[in-house]
Design brief:
The chain has a domain of about 160 residues: Thrombin, subunit H. Strand 6 and strand 7 form a beta hairpin. The strands form two sheets. It has a six-stranded antiparallel beta barrel with strand order 1-2-5-4-3-12. A six-stranded antiparallel beta barrel has the order 6-7-8-11-10-9. Helix 1 crosses helix 2. The protein is about 40% helix and about 30% strand. It starts with a helix and ends with a strand. By secondary structure, the chain is of the alpha+beta class.
C-alpha cells in the first residue's frame, strides 16, 4: 500500500518536473517536438512502405491485364484483316478468271459452251485430271474440249449426270485420246497427232507422219475437228521447234501451250 502511494507521488512529481522544464525552457520543448515529429515521420514512412509496394504491384497487374486484353484484341483484328485480304485476293483471281473465260467464249466457235467449276482435284494426279460440277444433265458430252484462259487444256474423259472428269493434255496417257491437231501455215494446214508432254520444257509433243514439210516456228496450233472431237479452230499453242522423229517416220513438233495448265477454279467446255 505504501509502495503504491510512493509510485503515484513519484509519477506526479515527474510529470510536474517535465512540464516545468518544457514551460521554462522553450528551446527544449521545440527540440522534443521536432525530434518527436522526425520519429513519427520515420515510423509513418516505415509503415507506409508495404502498402505503397502492394498498391504499385496492384497497378502493375492491372496495367498488364489491360495490355494483354489490348494485345488479344489487336491479334484478333490482324487475323480478321488477313482473312479479308485472302478473300479479296481469291475474289480478284476468280473475277479475272471468269473475265478471261468470257473473252475466250466470245472469240471461239462451238454449238455448246458451258462454264464449269472445279470441285475435286487429287494431289497425286494434280497435273493430269480434275472433276467439275457439270455433267450430262447440263449438256456436257464426252467429245468436248476443256479450255482455260488462252486456249485448250484438256478433254472430257468420264461423264456422269452431275459431274465430269477432265483429262489434261499433259497426262502420260494422253496419246490414247488420238487427238489430232492442226498447224496453220501460210499456204497449207498440217495435221499432227498429240503424243505427249515434256514436263521439263513445258511443251506439247506432236508427231507429223509422212513426208517432212516446212513448219515455221511460231505457227499457230489449234484443234482440227477430226475424229471424236469435232470442234475445230480452238487455240492450243504455237510451234516452238521441229525435228526429225526418232523413228524417222515423220517430224516431232514441239508446241508451247497458249493457256495456263495450272487452272485455279473455272473452265470453259466447248463442243458440238
Amino acid at each position: 500500500m505504501l509502495l503504491k502511494r510512493f509510485f503515484k507521488i513519484f509519477s506526479l512529481l515527474f510529470v510536474l518536473v517535465v512540464a516545468g522544464v518544457l514551460f521554462l525552457f522553450p528551446s527544449v520543448r521545440n527540440t522534443i517536438v521536432i525530434k518527436s515529429s522526425d520519429v513519427l515521420t520515420i515510423f509513418d514512412q516505415a509503415i507506409s512502405i508495404p502498402f505503397s509496394v502492394i498498391e504499385s504491384k496492384s497497378n502493375d497487374i492491372k496495367n498488364l491485364s489491360k495490355i494483354n486484353d489490348e494485345n488479344i484484341s489487336l491479334k484478333s483484328k490482324i487475323y480478321q484483316i488477313d482473312i479479308n485480304h485472302s478473300k479479296l485476293n481469291r475474289l480478284e483471281s476468280e473475277n479475272k478468271e471468269l473475265k478471261d473465260l468470257l473473252n475466250l467464249k466470245n472469240s471461239v466457235s462451238g454449238s455448246k459452251q458451258v462454264v464449269g467449276e472445279i470441285v475435286d482435284r487429287n494431289y497425286s494426279s494434280w497435273n493430269e485430271q480434275f472433276v467439275i460440277d457439270k455433267g450430262s444433265s447440263d449438256g456436257i458430252s464426252d467429245s468436248m474440249f476443256v479450255l482455260s484462259s488462252g486456249g485448250v487444256i484438256g478433254v472430257v474423259d468420264n461423264l456422269e449426270k452431275n459431274s465430269s472428269r477432265i483429262k489434261l493434255l499433259v497426262g502420260n496417257d494422253i496419246s490414247s485420246q488420238h487427238l489430232t491437231l492442226k498447224i496453220e501455215d501460210k499456204t497449207q494446214s498440217i495435221f499432227a497427232l498429240l503424243i505427249g508432254f515434256d514436263d521439263k520444257t513445258g511443251e506439247f509433243r506432236l508427231l507429223q507422219i509422212g513426208d517432212s514439210v516446212d513448219i515455221k516456228k511460231g505457227s499457230l496450233v489449234s484443234t482440227s475437228g477430226l475424229g471424236k472431237y469435232k470442234t475445230s479452230d480452238l487455240p492450243v499453242g504455237t510451234v516452238s521447234s521441229v525435228k526429225k522423229a526418232s523413228d524417222q517416220l515423220g517430224q516431232e513438233i514441239r508446241v508451247k501451250p497458249k493457256a495456263s495448265l495450272d487452272v485455279n477454279r473455272y473452265v470453259l467446255l466447248i463442243g458440238e
